[in-house]
């Protein structure tokens, strides 16, 4: 995958939404929205009025469609141009995050509206092939689980990896192509049943995990200006954009939620990941040399949207009322720090024969074999050209003969010195000696025909692919070891947190 920077840095967009009062809550005027500004008042000290300004603010009367059309849809449009986008809902438990992302049948949220819009936009490309894939995962107790398949058999969860283009991805995550809104609705409805939820004192159906729904949109294009070598066909490539829609679990005060032992463990993991998110934002704003993205699975996945190469938008959800004053203040203060982060969005393109990831060794080997065959075809064409004389043919096989024949001392015999040629090849191929097997000479000192060249290169491809597989297996073993160490560290932290909470 090739990446092209757009040339325009964009700050993380922050949108604020205040939910209405619930039936059991006593209304007050402690929260007010005026245009793109929100003000919260401490009823215990009416002189304490704090205001925050964001890209947009939506009061309790705002509809789901208002937020989607004003703030979300413009970001979705850019995905068809090959740009990645991440939209995540942030706030304390019970502030309306899941309602904003999922909604109801009468008031659909961001997720169903995005799905519907993707299929509408696909109609704008009648001459192109547009493919839409979906994946869905959750981070529960700092373990990543695939929501498109049953939890049984997933063991200790999935691993988060980074490819050669510095793209963050989850290894072995299920990825399904969808061709209609009805198909997505069926998949998503069943997947939501696998998500971890529970009832707490603050929320009847509280999300106990961070949920990440991703749409991968690939648009096949033709580059009329880019011509293949010695051919008239136009080059095929694709634009690849990804949308991450994230419903973060809410931070909790265990004294208010009245959590039991299991809920305490879940709450500890949630609060830890949100604490790391705060550290990441602080480190980015302070231009720190080390940003702790790897300290939490959730921040690792959010990394491209926090100072990376994807667009980012935070929807900070606020619960109105005096009892939520400190929660609202902390959420709004965090959102204010987040809006100063700058991203450098890029356009992702994939050529026709390019493998989707270097870790996919079969595709890598196939791509290399295709390159060998193309080189073979071009060589045959040039060798059959009547305008190419004998010396030019020799240059195709032996660059040293051509360079040496230009010196007067070696022009006689139309030849070259074997010793000097051997030294030349030795210097040139020294970095590749590690690929030699046994006493195999990587560059035979004889002239090779086309078939021999192709066979030689294909054998090298096989060796490279085998070594790549071996390296990946070694890396996988090391990552599993690190995972076990991290699990033990997390377990120790949770035990300490529970001990501290017990003392409080």
Automatic annotation (TrEMBL):
<keyword id="KW-0175">Coiled coil</keyword>
<dbReference type="InterPro" id="IPR001752">
    <property type="entry name" value="Kinesin_motor_dom"/>
</dbReference>
<keyword id="KW-0505">Motor protein</keyword>
<dbReference type="GO" id="GO:0005874">
    <property type="term" value="C:microtubule"/>
</dbReference>
<dbReference type="InterPro" id="IPR036961">
    <property type="entry name" value="Kinesin_motor_dom_sf"/>
</dbReference>
<dbReference type="GO" id="GO:0007018">
    <property type="term" value="P:microtubule-based movement"/>
</dbReference>
<keyword id="KW-0493">Microtubule</keyword>
<protein>
    <recommendedName>
        <fullName>Kinesin-like protein</fullName>
    </recommendedName>
</protein>
<dbReference type="GO" id="GO:0005524">
    <property type="term" value="F:ATP binding"/>
</dbReference>
<keyword id="KW-0547">Nucleotide-binding</keyword>
<feature type="domain" description="Kinesin motor">
    <location>
        <begin position="11"/>
        <end position="341"/>
    </location>
</feature>
<dbReference type="InterPro" id="IPR019821">
    <property type="entry name" value="Kinesin_motor_CS"/>
</dbReference>
<dbReference type="Pfam" id="PF00225">
    <property type="entry name" value="Kinesin"/>
</dbReference>
<keyword id="KW-0067">ATP-binding</keyword>
<feature type="binding site">
    <location>
        <begin position="91"/>
        <end position="98"/>
    </location>
    <ligand>
        <name>ATP</name>
    </ligand>
</feature>
<dbReference type="GO" id="GO:0051231">
    <property type="term" value="P:spindle elongation"/>
</dbReference>
<dbReference type="GO" id="GO:0005875">
    <property type="term" value="C:microtubule associated complex"/>
</dbReference>
<comment type="similarity">
    <text>Belongs to the TRAFAC class myosin-kinesin ATPase superfamily. Kinesin family.</text>
</comment>
<dbReference type="InterPro" id="IPR027417">
    <property type="entry name" value="P-loop_NTPase"/>
</dbReference>
<dbReference type="GO" id="GO:0007052">
    <property type="term" value="P:mitotic spindle organization"/>
</dbReference>
<dbReference type="GO" id="GO:0008017">
    <property type="term" value="F:microtubule binding"/>
</dbReference>
<dbReference type="InterPro" id="IPR027640">
    <property type="entry name" value="Kinesin-like_fam"/>
</dbReference>
<dbReference type="GO" id="GO:0003777">
    <property type="term" value="F:microtubule motor activity"/>
</dbReference>
<feature type="coiled-coil region">
    <location>
        <begin position="469"/>
        <end position="503"/>
    </location>
</feature>
